[in-house]
């Protein structure tokens, strides 16, 4: 049986790997994913400029929890038309003691960072993780890797900077 520490060394490693990634983020699974396992626990490192396409998890058992370990991260909640729901969105910031959020199934969400950030992410699953059915991308959001996605991210980032 394995034990993994969530410490500064792991956070530094995750951010270093994010810097090497074309997507400007990196995920470290904190356990061996077994077929049918009902929970996924991971460290997710994000750098400014990464685009997390808005999405939702539709299975009623798929709750997702984010807990901030380093940096600041906007965890955005959207309505069905793609407008930000500012009341339910949050800026996770250790200095402000806003550390995390729990998002139930069916809620559109995304993450945008203005500085390097690391989140502990926990997701539940009914019958285990299945990449093909895990997410539904928002139809109003641009596909990752496109010029439209870059423009969308810049617009969203500008809007969020104005809130600080």
Largest sheet: 5 strands, antiparallel
Number of strands: 10
Category by helix and strand content: alpha+beta
Uncertain spans, ≥5 residues at pLDDT below 50? none
Order of helices and strands: HEEEEEEEEEEH
What name goes with the CATH superfamily? Jelly Rolls
Strand content: 25-35%
Numbering strands along the chain, what is their spatial order in the largest sheet? 1-2-9-4-7
CATH class: Mainly Beta
CATH architecture: Sandwich
Mean pLDDT: 91
The value of Rg in angstroms is 15 Å
Alpha-carbon distance between the two ends: 44 Å
Percent in helix: 10-25%
Shape: globular
Number of domains: 1
Oligomer: single chain
* Tally of separate helices: 2
CATH T-level topology: Jelly Rolls
In short:
This protein has 164 residues and is an alpha+beta fold. The chain is built from 2 helices and 10 strands; from the N terminus they run H-E-E-E-E-E-E-E-E-E-E-H.
